[in-house]
Structure formats: C-alpha cells, structure tokens
Design brief:
Blueprint (H helix, E strand, L loop, with lengths): L5 H28 L14 E8 L5 E11 L4 E14 L2 H5 L15 E13 L6 E11 L2 E11 L5 H15 L6 H12 L1 E2 L4 E2 L3 E8 L4 H26 L6 H20 L2 H8 L4 H4 L11
Antiparallel strand pairs: 1-2, 2-3, 3-4, 4-5, 5-6, 6-9, 7-8
Helix pairs in contact: 1-5, 3-4, 3-5
Length: about 300
C-alpha cells in the first residue's frame, strides 16, 4: 500500500482527541452537578492530565499522548480517558500481540507502524451506577490499515432498562451504516468480552469490531466516529439515573467482586493491554483500566 496516509492519520488522531475532550468535560460536569444523594458531601473530582511519551530502541521519539485520570470523585471513584498516537517498528513479540492482521505480508521486511486511539474505563463510586469501557482506534502499516474498537457496559448490579437503553442507543448510531452492522458488532462484543475461565461475560455487552477495512477509508472512519459519538448518550443517562440511589453493604460487596472479574479479563485476555505493554507504551497509561479497589472470594 503506497498511498500517502498522512492526512488521514491526522484526521483520525484529531478526532480521538476531540472525543476525549468532550468526554472529559461531560464527566467533570457530572461531578460538579452531583449535589444530592450518596457521596454528594464530598468534593467534586477533576481529571489529572499527564503527557505520556514513548521512545524507540535508539531513544528517538516514538509518539505518546495524554493520560487523563480522575481518582476519588463523588460520582467516579476512578476513571481514565486516554488518547495516544504512537509509531515506530514492530518487534516480533509486538507483531504477535497485535489485535488484528497477524502475519501481514511484507511486515517482516518493513515492520513500520502507526496507531492512534482513545481508551476509556470508568469505575463508579455508587455500586448502583454501572462501570463502562470504550475505545476506538486506527492502525496503519505500509501494507495494511484498519479500524477497531467499541464500548461495553459492566454493571455489578444489572438493570434491564439500563441494558436496553445502552444497546438501543448504539443501534441507533450504527443504523446509517447498514442494518446488519449492529447485530454483527453486538455478537462480536459478546464473544470478545467473554471470560473463558469464569464461563461468563464480564458485563452486559455492547459493540466491538477489529480489523475493520472495507476498502473505503472515509466510510470506515465515519463508522468509527459514530461508535464514539454513541458513547455519551448511551452511558451518561444511566449515571444520572443511578448516582443518587441508595445502596447497602451487599451492593458494595458485589461491586468489589465484579471489579475483580474485570481486572482478570484485562490482565489475561485484553488485546489492547498486551499490545500496549509489548510496544513500550507508558505502563501506567496501559494499566489505567484497573479498578482502584477489588476483591476476590
């Protein structure tokens, strides 16, 4: 693939940063507006923003990003919203850890790559409010390119109406891209976010795709944008509804145990975690998804 992708890379990276800015602003507004109910007597949380950097083996610049983490908020106990744009060459171990397109023809001779994306994980203060994950990304090599990502809801206490709203909002945003797309991405999420050693899903699902390349970059980028645009309207109403609800010790126990399940998945199966660590990205940013407290029984 010899087409110059520089302008497309710039568009994708700018979009991921724009989406990050939108989400950070909305989440901080949720903290500021939480004035009744459990934890409303606490100070509102805010994001601590840190630049992340990555160096190649010879010490040269290999990209980086922004790690934005809120800890100890009154709505969000811990939430991270990270963006990164990294580049360089893929060592054999990193090639093996790639989420898609393993064994790309020509990669051994020219292992250059570029990747950009946004990654978000929220762990809530109130166990009635659901945890959530979202990421979208673009990956490029001289031989192939693709998009990936999605979002999924991870409540420790499940409410059918919350699950319905989350999925319906995603389906609405995907509808312009084809009637068959949402069912396919929902099924993919059900398969991907399954924990084999526990014989269960880690949450109530969502949408997920990887290795997405129809040959039409503009259409595939538009789909990736709409996956990102679906996130706030799918998730924020659930937080607004549940953040003021009362809870008991059994609810908190369920939350801590469910967080242990989430940690197991991210450390054992998550492709993004493996790829980030293998390519030398900031470990704190890669492991931002881990909950602040968890429990195993």
């Amino acid at each position: 693939m010899t087409e110059d992708f520089d302008s497309r890379k710039a568009l994708a990276a700018a979009w991921f940063r724009e989406l990050r800015d939108q989400i950070v602003a909305v989440f901080e507004d949720l903290e500021a507006s939480h004035t009744t109910g459990p934890f409303s007597d606490m100070a509102p949380g805010s994001f601590e923003v840190t630049e992340t950097t990555r160096a190649s083996d010879d010490g040269s610049d290999a990209g980086g990003g922004l790690m934005s983490v809120m800890r100890g908020g009154r709505v969000f106990e811990k939430v991270g919203v990270n963006v990164s744009t990294v580049f360089g060459t893929l060592a054999p171990r990193a090639q093996a850890a790639m989420a898609a397109r393993k064994g790309i023809p020509g990669m051994a001779d020219d292992p250059r790559f570029w990747a950009s994306g946004i990654s978000l994980v929220a762990h809530m203060r109130n166990p009635q409010a659901p945890a959530v994950h979202m990421n979208t990304r673009m990956f490029w090599t001289p031989h192939a390119w693709w998009f990936g990502g999605g979002s999924d809801l991870n409540p420790c206490l499940e409410f059918d109406e919350d699950t319905t709203h989350f999925h319906a909002t995603q389906e609405q945003h995907l509808a312009p891209h084809g009637a068959d797309l949402y069912p396919r991405l929902k099924e993919w999420a059900d398969e991907y976010f399954y924990i084999p050693h526990r014989h269960r899903a880690r949450g109530v699902g969502g949408i997920f795709m990887d290795d997405h390349n129809t040959g039409d970059w503009e259409a595939d980028f538009a789909l990736t944008q709409d996956i990102g645009r679906a996130f706030l309207p799918a998730y924020v109403p659930l937080v607004e509804k549940r953040r003021t609800a009362d809870f008991n010790e059994a609810d908190k126990e369920a939350q801590l145990i469910h967080r242990g399940l989430y940690a197991e998945y991210n450390l054992v199966y998550d492709r993004g975690t493996k790829f980030g660590l293998e390519t030398g990205h900031d470990a704190n940013a890669v492991l931002m998804s881990l909950p602040p407290l968890a429990k195993w029984v």
